[in-house]
Amino acid sequence: MASTSHNPAILLRRVLSLRENSHFVLVIDSIGRSGHCVLDEVAHEAEGSTTIIYVSFETIRKPNYATHFIDGCISPSRLLTTIQSFLPSPEHSKLSAGSKFLVVIDSINSIPGGNLVQFVTQLASPSVALLAIFHKDVPEYRSAELENYPSSIQLLKFMASSIIEVRPFTLDIGEEQDQESGLQKLDMPTGLNSSVYKLILTNRRKSGRALTHEFKCDSQTHSFTPIQNDEDSTGDPEGSESFEGLTTFNLGTSNRQKAAKEQVALPFLEAQTFNTGGAIVYEFEKDDDYDEEDPYEDPF
Q: What residue numbers bound the domain in which 153 lies?
């Protein structure tokens, strides 16, 4: 079976079908391209047994793929309680390990910045996936109390395990820059929300390493074609050829060393839970050598 690290299309389909270990998927759209196309792809890729709770701030009618439809125009605390009433309790989630639950939010901009962390962390879990759309062109109101607080998009990008950004598809960088300049002036060209669009996927591993891939997507055929960037075709900057002749010793890394580097698990996902504060996360292993009688060498 091909590795998802070297097959971007497989990785994207795993994220959309909720088979990837992504508890919080953030979709970023703009006035040039709506992110609802990603919701349709998730509904197409998700299994029939998936329970989808749709939280609406902008949608008037219940989508066909939604199991439950919730009006989000209430207080954040009441909204959180309403959503959790459709989700399994921690005890029941262990018993129903095969079932999947997906919470879809069509505009997470409507959640106040001061409530975002609590809202996301209490919904996203190993048994519940959270998929939220953020409109990056919508101005954010920031009160005086949150002046030194991170913005909503900064918090969401930090907490998200996968980030999907959708843009109108363009043939080259020049056309993309001209289109972006026109959109800033509210000059709307035709065909912005066509069936073909550009998708940028950023997937974070458990170690915190981010993999970014670009795709040309077609919502009619449900196809995802990876886009090869110029910087990808130049080769690996860490390869031995880039250091050849510069030193008298080898600074390159072998394929085995690169594979071992990718498998190193750092406490990145543990930091996203906001429960450990500034503590160092350490997992004790049986091969660790320490003196049980010395309290200063106690790994715990």
A: 8-233
